[in-house]
């Protein structure tokens, strides 16, 4: 790919036109990265542009930036600053719309989770650290309901972070204490969407095979994590069921 084409595609990733952004720019950039069509200099250019996009005013620019860094990580790239900057953006992002009628798919929650999952699987970041970021995103109050499988993307990221063989048994479950605390502190009324959807998706996955690129991923301390997740969900539905 020539430099001018790459520059234009990266510009188009900030476009408010979903057809131009999703169907042309993003799909082309992703394929170019995954099939090793870019030079090292071009990969660096893509990373720098993505980092700048995280700070732009337009939500579509911010929400697509982590996807670029995600595919770079999946193909062997890494800079510590990518994780720091994406995490800061993810925790501070206030526009969590999944889909907008004019802008199309935005998916900040899902796209950030995808990058965090890739970071954990790369081994460059401790799984416990990745889970901490995901939990903070979960318990941060928001008026947006996670849907269109955003909650599943977050659950997948948590599960893949929990595959880090460096995790101790305590680290594999301690993060749920913060979730449980957030749930028990809620005023009477409906629980936040993430509390049941994300945890249910994770619990189902733990009962079967967690996959990455269609290959099973071994979850460290699986049984202990599964029981801790169930006990956390139980807080929201004590009238329905209890952990055996």
Short key terms for the protein model shown above:
two-stranded antiparallel sheet; 244 residues; mainly alpha
Structure explained in plain terms:
With 244 residues, this protein is mainly alpha-helical. Helices cover 63% and strands 4% of the residues. Helix 1 packs parallel to helix 3 and helix 6 packs parallel to helix 8. The radius of gyration is 18 Å and the shape is globular. The termini are far apart. The relative contact order is 0.09.
Distance between the termini: 57 Å
Order of helices and strands: HHHHHEEHHHHHEEH
Decide which structural class fits the backbone: mainly alpha
From the spread of the alpha carbons, the general shape counts as: globular
Low-confidence stretches: none
- Write down how many β-strands occur, each being a DSSP E stretch of 2 or more residues: 4
Mean pLDDT: 94
Question: Strand content of the residues, in percent?
Answer: under 5%
Query: Given the structure, what is the number of helices?
Result: 11
Instruction: Give the radius of gyration.
Output: 18 Å
- Seen as an oligomer or otherwise, the chain set is single chain
Trace the largest sheet across and list its strands: 1-2
Largest sheet: 2 strands, antiparallel
As a percent range, the share of helical residues equals: 55-70%
Short description:
This protein has 244 residues and is mostly helical. Helix content is 63%, strand content 4%.
What's the arrangement of secondary structure elements?
Elements: H1 3-12, H2 18-34, H3 40-53, H4 59-74, H5 80-92, E1 99-100, E2 104-105, H6 108-122, H7 127-139, H8 150-161, H9 169-184, H10 193-206, E3 210-212, E4 215-217, H11 222-234
Helix pairs in contact: 1-2, 1-3, 2-4, 3-4, 4-6, 5-6, 6-7, 6-8, 7-8, 7-9, 8-10, 9-11, 10-11
